[in-house]
């Protein structure tokens, strides 16, 4: 990352302020919701106590039958399609997999029953058959003000329902119904007369298999006898009372112990706050603020049964509270359920519901203010950081450019700009300037070292050489003469070193003081090549020159010295029966001079250092003819190439039988 990017990233740390503000808003919203929960629970408990004053209208505490309300009487045909949803959640009986289902409903003051039995082993009979005969049948026990009545229901085939008393005789009341056979068993649909007031009901189904097996199911006690269960249903008389007691804009629902709705009053007040919020804000609140509210209020307004967690808790004896989201918007729905107790027993559960607008209003106001402050603070801090980073990065770029220009390709040190700034960047620039001053002084010392050494070593070498001459003229024992010869060889090598260093110094001075002139490089190379031919004998020497003149602006004598060094290098490495090839060609704005020779290749590790000072790859075979070689020749070639705005390079031939030196020249400015 760039410096500006890093500082902008640091500037984002100011986002911790809106995050902390957002946490505060969420905590405040949580406390507000807790207060609303307690208030709604208190209202629900007050309503429950008011309803419990008159317990006669409430369902009994023990298990009973819930009778649904139907808008019109279903047709008695053994089909459940016209029961208007009342058959969707029947009472089930039977161990393991339930095989007896019962639904009860009331229409036109008549009690309707829908009985479904799974029985594929048909052992059918008629209701009036003797009781000691075994066959598939239903027993129905009803209880009312005039006493109990047991009815036997059985048909041998589909058709009008056959009803008899317990003794097989015609019953005292006329029961209408229909028995329908189907693949899974049979369905019985019946209706009791209007005059029969049913307070309790019991049912039993007996299934006989072909092999004599028998099973029973229904509302039976531990001894297998019919056990009456009280009948209750929707109590419309409670609606005006609940409507008068419930707070405005709330909905009250009263359920029995199985969550069947027995009374419903009031309606939820429309929430206008949703219209005041922009769509993107509603989506934001839905995704951030109400993440913990996952349930959606998807109950139908006329649902017969409510399966809710808070209602289940109230039926179990504990109050419950739940938040839900409106499926059509972002408003919250708060519901509180409390148990309705009579004499310490839970007889019903009261559910109180209301919409919530305070949370949305508070959140929107707090979020709007927080968003505005955060945006202003972020833009301000980001702008300041960006300006500071831009200025700092510009200073660092200037420092980098100055460091790149401080040392040129020839090793010369240019003055480094100093700044008076007192910060760390200013200290760094001054440190760089001091370091480059020391490097410049050391470089100047190294540049003049060879000249100083060559001058200072001449006198000691002359003294040693004179002393060796005097020793040779004196009478020396034979065993001492080899040592004198070794000393003379060493003096000669040191003399060669001094002369070479003096030559390099002169060439460096000549390069510094050389003046450019126009000349024909082709003619210059052609003239030198004739002299090299005799020098390189008996080696084969070929020259490839362009047909047209090749004008060049530079120092021709220095180019000749560089070519002499290359030829001398080729002569030292090329065997007597080898070949040397010199070629010249135009290369864009300059020229490309190549000298190739047969011989050993250059190690890859030495290619980058080959043109440095005091670097030589010559062994004893290559030094035998030419004496000591100290590695200054190719260094001079590099200096001449750089003077002519070019460079020198060496590479092995593709066939691996030699090496070629390439000198690229563009001319002096």
Automatic annotation (TrEMBL):
Molecular function terms, GO-annotated: phosphorelay sensor kinase activity
Residue ranges of every copy of the Histidine kinase domain listed in the record: 452-669
Catalysed reactions listed for this entry: ATP + protein L-histidine = ADP + protein N-phospho-L-histidine
Keywords for this protein: Kinase, Membrane, Phosphoprotein, Transferase, Transmembrane, Transmembrane helix, Two-component regulatory system
Boundaries of every HAMP domain copy: 390-444
Gene Ontology CC: membrane
Localization in the cell: Membrane
Enzyme Commission identifier(s): 2.7.13.3
Highest taxon of the lineage: Bacteria
Transmembrane segments: 366-389
PANTHER family associated with the record: SENSOR HISTIDINE KINASE TRCS, SENSOR HISTIDINE KINASE YKOH
Protein known as: histidine kinase
Organism this protein belongs to: Arenimonas terrae
């Amino acid at each position: 990352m760039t410096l500006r990017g890093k500082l902008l990233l640091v500037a984002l740390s100011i986002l911790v302020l809106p995050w902390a503000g957002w946490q505060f808003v969420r905590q405040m919203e949580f406390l507000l919701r807790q207060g609303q929960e307690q208030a709604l629970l208190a209202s629900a408990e007050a309503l429950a106590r008011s309803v419990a004053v008159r317990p006669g209208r409430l369902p009994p505490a023990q298990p009973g039958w819930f009778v649904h309300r139907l808008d019109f009487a279903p047709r008695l045909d053994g089909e459940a399609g016209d029961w208007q949803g009342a058959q969707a959640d029947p009472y089930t009986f039977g161990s393991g997999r339930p095989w007896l289902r019962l639904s009860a409903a009331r229409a036109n003051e008549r009690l309707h029953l829908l009985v479904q039995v799974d029985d594929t082993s048909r052992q059918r009979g008629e209701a009036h058959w003797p009781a000691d005969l075994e066959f598939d049948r239903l027993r129905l026990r009803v209880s009312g003000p005039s006493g109990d009545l047991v009815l036997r229901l059985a048909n041998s085939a589909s058709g009008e329902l056959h009803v008899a008393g317990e003794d097989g005789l015609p019953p005292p009341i006329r029961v209408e119904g229909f028995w329908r056979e189907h693949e899974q068993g049979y369905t019985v649909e019946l209706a009791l007369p209007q005059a029969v007031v049913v307070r309790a009901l019991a049912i039993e189904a007996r299934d006989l298999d072909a092999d004599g097996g028998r099973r029973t199911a229904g509302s039976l006690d531990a001894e297998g006898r019919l056990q009456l269960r009280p009948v209750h249903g929707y109590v419309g008389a409670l609606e005006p009372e609940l409507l008068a007691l419930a707070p405005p804009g709330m909905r009250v629902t009263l359920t029995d112990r199985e969550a069947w709705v027995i009374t419903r009053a009031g309606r939820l007040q429309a929430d206008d706050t949703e219209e005041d919020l922009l769509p993107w804000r509603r989506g934001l609140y839905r995704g951030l603020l109400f993440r913990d509210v996952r349930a959606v209020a998807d109950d139908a307004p006329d649902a017969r049964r409510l399966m809710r967690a808070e209602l289940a808790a109230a039926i179990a004896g504990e109050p419950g509270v739940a938040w839900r989201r409106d499926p059509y918007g972002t408003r919250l729905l708060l519901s509180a359920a409390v148990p309705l107790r009579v004499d310490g027993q839970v007889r019903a559960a009261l559910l109180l519901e209301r919409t919530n607008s305070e949370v949305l209003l508070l959140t929107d106001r707090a979020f709007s203010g927080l968003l505005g402050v955060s945006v202003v603070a972020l833009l301000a801090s980001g702008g300041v950081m960006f300006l500071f980073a831009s200025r700092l990065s510009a200073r660092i770029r200037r420092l980098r450019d100055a460091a790149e220009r401080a040392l040129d390709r020839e090793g010369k040190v240019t003055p480094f700009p100093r700044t008076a700034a007192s910060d760390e960047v200013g200290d760094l620039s001054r440190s760089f300037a001091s370091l480059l001053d020391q490097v410049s002084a050391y470089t100047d010392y190294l540049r003049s070292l060879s000249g100083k050494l060559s001058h200072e070593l001449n006198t000691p070498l002359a003294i040693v050489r004179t002393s060796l001459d005097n020793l040779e003229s004196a009478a020396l024992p034979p065993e001492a003469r080899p040592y004198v010869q070794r000393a003379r060889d060493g003096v000669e090598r040191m003399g060669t070193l001094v002369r070479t260093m003096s030559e390099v110094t002169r060439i460096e001075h000549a390069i510094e003081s050389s003046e450019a002139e126009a000349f024909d490089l082709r003619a210059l190379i052609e003239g030198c090549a004739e002299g090299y031919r005799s020098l390189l004998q008996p080696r084969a020497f070929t020259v490839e020159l362009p047909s047209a003149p090749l004008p060049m602006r530079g120092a021709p004598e220095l180019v000749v010295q560089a070519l002499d060094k290359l030829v001398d290098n080729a002569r030292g490495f090329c065997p007597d029966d080898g070949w040397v090839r010199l070629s010249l060609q135009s290369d864009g704005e300059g020229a490309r001079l190549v000298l190739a020779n047969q011989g050993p290749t250059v190690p890859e590790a030495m290619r980058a250092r080959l043109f440095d000072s005091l670097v030589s790859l010559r062994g004893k075979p290559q030094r035998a003819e030419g004496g000591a070689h100290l590695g200054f020749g190719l260094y001079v070639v590099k200096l001449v190439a750089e003077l002519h705005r070019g460079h020198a390079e060496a590479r092995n031939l593709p066939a691996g039988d030699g090496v070629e030196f390439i000198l690229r020249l563009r001319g002096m400015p």
